[in-house]
Structure formats: structure tokens, C-alpha cells
Design a protein that fits this description.
About 45% of the residues lie in helices and about 10% in strands. The chain is of the alpha/beta class. Strand 3 (about 115-120), helix 6 and strand 4 (about 135-140) form a beta-alpha-beta unit. The longest helix has 28 residues, at about 365-395. Bound molecules: pyridoxal-5'-phosphate. Pyridoxal-5'-phosphate binds near residues 97 and 232.
Amino acid sequence: MSLSINERSRNLIVPGIRQFANQLVDYPDAVNLTIGQPDFPTPDAVKKAAIAAIENNLTGYSHNAGIVDLRIAINSFFNDTYGFSYNPDTEIIVTNGASEAIDTLFRTILEEDDEVILPAPLYSSYEAIINLCGAKVVYLDTTDTEFQPSAERLSSLITDKTKAVLFNFPSNPTGVIISPTQMDALVDVLAEKEVYIISDEIYSENTFEGNHKSFASYEKIRDQLFLLHGLSKSHSMTGWRIGYVLGPQEIMQHVLKVHLYNSICASLPSQYAAIEALSNNRHVPAEMNKEYIARRDYVYNRLIEMGLEVVKPNGAFYIFPSIKEFGFSSFDFATKLLKEGGVACVPGSAFSKYGEGFMRISYAYAMPVLIKGMDRLESYIESIRSQQSTTANTSK
Ligand SMILES: Cc1ncc(COP(=O)(O)O)c(C=O)c1O
């Protein structure tokens, strides 16, 4: 058939994570450290709330923005936890996961040839949606600043074409959180500019030391800011598809139109589950964090012992060591590690070209899996180092 399709869809590339995961099926004995979702079950009370909703026939459409009780619960959660407030009637929309919030928001605000600044390495969905909108990504390199976006660099990248700047802290793939002083400096730059700020804080509840600070706590950028969030990570609810976008009323009325034409509303039983998660199960992420911290410490210490360069992450459940010393592309390194070393990690290039030279390890896995994975990684690294030193010696 010779019918064409949308050129921008044709040009989308399959995410690096998916390309890599496709190889995994051929190596069933590999230790898989690629998955970006918690390995805990959804809390029982949350499951029961959805079951009760289904049994009470609460299975139809809801208000396009989500049921009002959920929007109230979202506002109460942010107000109690972080001290800022959004109007549940006009400033909060419940979406099908944070993914739909990203798509809906970008399609609401972006026009062709707009530029969006993204600190990189970064989660790949943003770029794909920006490209689908005909807008352009401008990267803010964070690889030489311990993955913290520099305010000076940000300032130098802002042009007349810049429509938005997006932040994602705690970060996927690096696991770093943004320091409060760095955040102050970024906010000072952005408050002076006519640009939107989008903050994807989906990993906020997985902050390990100190308290998460939200961009929404800065009053002076409130009319430029959109906060993206959801329950996938904090309450291990990736399959329930509940996310939310919070922002200024003036723009949110347009975000709501894009959302309603796209999906009408989020799943209703999941919305009832979300109320339970945000009201009576706020303690759940802290319980998961105890486990993540023990795993993070274990994996970090093992990587350091292996002599790999790595920034210690303080949130999410990822760690992003450098593999530059081996001289392979990150895709080749990850492929060889899978085939010859029996461990699957995501090549850093899946997180933009700025992730080249790194690999992402997820520690959303039980300790015995991590121990086996680190043992295998260590043996593999030793074998490459000894091969490389033999080659270097024989070529002298
Ligand atoms: C930074 C970031 N934002 C958004 C998402 C998507 O979340 P959801 O499952 O709620 O669509 C992910 C998923 O991995 C993520 O890592």
C-alpha cells in the first residue's frame, strides 16, 4: 500500500529501552536490571477501594478533569506535604498516567518550531512528544555538573523561540535530586523570562535524604509552572494509569479540552483507588524507601569497589554509572554485558545522546537479584579489563 502516514510519527524512533528489551527474550537466564517500576504490590487498601468501586458499579465515565473528591485529595496531599495549594475545580486534571499528562500538556502549549529546553540525560518520552508537535528539543548538558542543571547554562540557552523548560527531579535515569541552591538559581533565571516551566516530579516521594522540594513551592513562578505527577511510582500503581497535571487556571482550561478529546477521563475505579492512596496510604512510599535505600547503598558501594565512576543517587530507583573507560558505545556495552556477562542494564544512549558513555541500572529488584547482578557485572568488567590490558601489552 502506498498511502503515507504522518511524517513525524514515521520519524519517531522506538525507545532505546524497548529496543534493548527486545533482545532480552533470547537470554532468559540474564539478571534483568532494566525495569522502571517498583517491585512491590499495590497496597491492599488501595486495591480494595477499586474493588469496592467496581462492585458499586462506579465503572462509567467521570468528570473530564477527574472526580472532584480525587482532585480535592490531590490538593490536600500537596498542601499537607509541601505547603502549596491548587484549586481542585480549575487547576487540577487527572490523566491516564503521567504519560498522558506529558502528551496533553505539550500538545496544548507547543506550536511548530517552538523550542523546549530539556536537561539531559533524560527520560525519552518528552523528546518524542515534542517532536510529534513539530517543536524542537534544546538540550542542557548536565554530564559535567553531576547531573545538576546549571542556571548559567540554562540562561544562555533561552532564546525568543524557547516556549518551555522541563525538569525531572528526582531524575530518571540518574536518580539525582536537585539541590535547593541550584533550584533557587534556576527559578531566579526563569522568573524573569516569558517561558513555561514544566516539572515532572513523579519520583518526589522516592527522595531518600532530606525532603523533596517542589518547583510549585516558589510563588513567583506559579503562573508559568505546570506540575506533573502521579501514583505509578509512589504507590506502585504503574498499571492503574493515574497521573495528574496542576497549573494556572487560564491555561488549564485549554489543557482540559485536549485531555477530554484525547481520552475523556481516567479510569474511574482507578480514580477511587487513587483517593485511598493519597488519603490513607501516604506512609507507603517511606516504607518502600527503606528498602530502596538499602539497595541503593549496596549497588553504589559495589560499583565503587569495581572502580566505576558514579554519582550517588538520592532518589527514584536508578543509578547511572559511567562506562566510558571501556571505549564501547553504551548500546554495544549493554549488548555485550547481556550476551557475555548475563546482566541486562539499559544503555545510557536510551536517554538522549548525553547518556552516551553511561548505563542505567534499576534497583527496583529484590536484594538477591541485585547481589547476583553485581557479582556478574564485576566478573564481566574484570574480564574486559584483563582482555583490554592484554591487547594493550601485545600491541606495545
Ligand atoms: C520521569 C518519568 N515521568 C513519567 C513517567 C510515566 O509515568 P506513568 O506510568 O504515570 O505514565 C515515567 C515512567 O517511567 C518517568 O520515569
